């Protein structure tokens, strides 16, 4: 029996109250594995229950047992029996199979790494795997796939309804082996700018400013990237009309026109409501006749406006509620 199966037998023997108290101290992944094993157990022979309880008693008895560095021991045995190269390949498979199912593996990996890996796979295979992931991660991976693959994968995800467990297991095993060969399971997404932005979202404004001011000295490019992610151009228009009017008085028409190039209609209408009718008419006409522009130019114009808003916030001229702040607007 696996460790999860033994734990499932023990929990079922102890009953729901004890199981609930144990689950309070476990990680979600461990709870998932034990719960899955519980649902698959069926009839458990009395002798098997006795063996599990006896093993649990031995392990929890402080006077019994020993400590062993299992992987080092297995590595030495495999190298002696199979040679270094074959031993390392087998160890990689063992490590991979112990991590969890394919969904668990991919959920912790960087989307760009996954997209690069899948770029050589058949669209149907990609669709079956991505359909099992959370929508946010699926969308990130699709956006990073080669352009000609994106629509193909989306079509197949839409068409995927039911897939037999045998096919799923076969696909998971093939992907697992290929990831292992590439060392892909070693590249997990544990940080990055998005993580930092998420952390900043729970800080109060004064603490956020102190950290960013320090980053301006230590790593100015990183500070600028974080600022850009913390507050988007569209976020400006979540302010009330009075605050938007204050901001718009500080922005030139040329900068505003370029910044609005990619804005949705609701954002444009909110801007037009909060500037003079003459300015709104001019900007609307300029947008209609404006030809193609570089996305980088649009983003630069939007960044200029974002800087104006953040400076005005620091000066107390506008208030942006939320993100760790205790401010209440009345």
UniProtKB/TrEMBL annotation:
Domain Flagellar motor switch protein FliG N-terminal residue range list: 1-97
Flagellar motor switch protein FliG C-terminal domain residues: 214-320
This protein's GO CC annotations: bacterial-type flagellum basal body; plasma membrane
Record keyword Repeat present: no
Alphabetical UniProt keywords: Bacterial flagellum, Cell membrane, Cell projection, Chemotaxis, Cilium, Flagellar rotation, Flagellum, Membrane
One GO biological process term: bacterial-type flagellum-dependent cell motility
Gene3D superfamilies: 1.10.220.30
Cross-referenced InterPro entries: Flg_Motor_Flig, Flg_Motor_Flig_C, FliG_a-hlx, FliG_M, FliG_N
Intracellular or extracellular location(s): Bacterial flagellum basal body; Cell membrane
One Pfam family it belongs to: FliG_C
GO molecular function, one term: cytoskeletal motor activity
Membrane-topology annotation of the record: Peripheral membrane protein
Keyword Aminoacyl-tRNA synthetase applies: no
Residue ranges annotated for the Flagellar motor switch protein FliG middle domain, each copy included: 111-183
Cross-referenced NCBIfam families: fliG (TIGR00207)
Reported function: FliG is one of three proteins (FliG, FliN, FliM) that forms the rotor-mounted switch complex (C ring), located at the base of the basal body. This complex interacts with the CheY and CheZ chemotaxis proteins, in addition to contacting components of the motor that determine the direction of flagellar rotation.
Protein family (similarity comment): Belongs to the FliG family.
PANTHER family listed in its UniProt record: FLAGELLAR MOTOR SWITCH PROTEIN FLIG (PTHR30534:SF0)
Protein name: Flagellar motor switch protein FliG
